[in-house]
Amino acid sequence: MAEFTLKIRRYQPESGESAYWEEFKVDLDGKRSVLDGILQARDRQDGSIGIRCSCRAAICGSCGVRINGKPALACHTHLDEAERVAHGVGWNAPDEGQELPAITVEPMGNFPVLKDLIVDMDAVHWKKVQRVTPWLLPEGPPPEREYIVPPESMIDVTQSMACIQCGACVSDCLSMEVDPLFIGPAALAKAYRFVGDPRDGQHRERLQDLAEDPHGIYDCTHCFNCIEACPKGVAPMSQIMRLRRVSSADYGIKDRNNGYRHEHAFVENIRRNGILHEADLLPDSYGGKFHPRAVPELFSSLPIVTKALQRRKMTPGKALGHPHKAPKEVKRIFEQVEGRGERYELNLYVVGVEEDEEALADNEAALASDEGPDAVGGEEHAAAAGSHLPEERSPNA
Ligand code: FES
User: Which of 33, 34, 56 maximizes ligand 1 atoms within 8 Å of its Cβ, making it the mutation to test the pocket?
Assistant: First the structure.
């Protein structure tokens, strides 16, 4: 047993007062969760602390909060680990009588707060999940029995299916902070779950809709926060990038947000210059300097350009001239990638072991002669022969 200090952000809308911090001391084993600490404080010290929870096992997704400023599941964060993070780098076991750092717990960001640590999931999260039509839309008459789907085609969507809808990714989404209407990482990861499912018959319609929406797939700015925040390894930003790749490369959807053109302008810019020439990227994304659409678009970008010049992110010299030309290595990489017959998608969520052909043949021979796998090399061979099945990488492991 040890003593931990929880510094909880309190807010009671009925009181008419603004939010404030309150500290609670709790006695628990360090391997118990922050949620256990909050529940102990509620049981023993203040029954009015508001926290939403259910399974206490990182399954239901209801206890999402910010711990030490980072989104996390309260039931999936050990008290001793949270205390170590609260203290910062170089934390060792405390000396006798040493003041312990407080673990801060506050409601998730980007959500309206209802009370203390409870946020309004309807307003921000569930409405957006509904927005992406989160159910299968198969085409044609249904089969007589169930839909049969090859297992390998479902591997691609396993990662997005692991989402428990806790909202941690939404809490730290920088795009949503700037544009609250952004559909957001959780809902777009859910969208990929159906775009990647071969039983769905409306892939093009779904992608067209998400690409044309000014708050859709091209509103993500690749900040990676959602990948870091997700407690289940769903990597929502990777799912958004997959949606973009399928939309642009497989369906050739040219959206009105210039997402498609920007992507292609970026690739051509690197092919030409080796490193990015930003001054060219803007007009190229609108169809080139002399394209009729480029003039109004460039005018609308003038405030951004002015700011970039003021902050010396760009100088007139750099903007107008660009001394770099792509070296041979860059050209070679382009040729190699574009020369491939098919695009490789790496789904790093699902891991498997290469099938050992030799062990498999040995095993089959042993089974055929009724001697069992041990006769041709023991457990090692048996394990290798059966190891081709993909296994899920559990983020909780
Ligand atoms: Fe269910 Fe934490 S209580 S995920």
Answer: 56
CATH number assigned to the domain covering 2-115: 3.10.20.30
- Residue 77 tokens read as 């964060």
Tokens 């009370």 correspond to what residue?
115
Task: Give the residue among 72, 70, 74 at the shortest CA–CA distance from 57.
Answer: 74
Q: 231 near 167, Cβ under 8 Å?
A: no
Atom of ligand 1 nearest to the CA of 166: 4
Q: What is the mean pLDDT of each run of 10 residues along the chain (397 residues)?
A: 94 92 96 98 97 97 97 97 84 64 95 97 95 94 88 85 96 96 97 94 97 96 95 95 93 91 91 85 79 76 82 75 82 89 66 60 67 39 32 35
State the distance from the centre of ligand 1 to the C-alpha of 53, rounded, in angstroms: 5
Per the CB < 8 A criterion, the answer to whether 94 and 80 are in contact is no
pLDDT at site 128: 97
What CATH number is given for 121-250 in this structure? 1.10.1060.10
- Ligand 1 probe mutation, 73, 78, 108, most atoms within 8 A of CB: 73
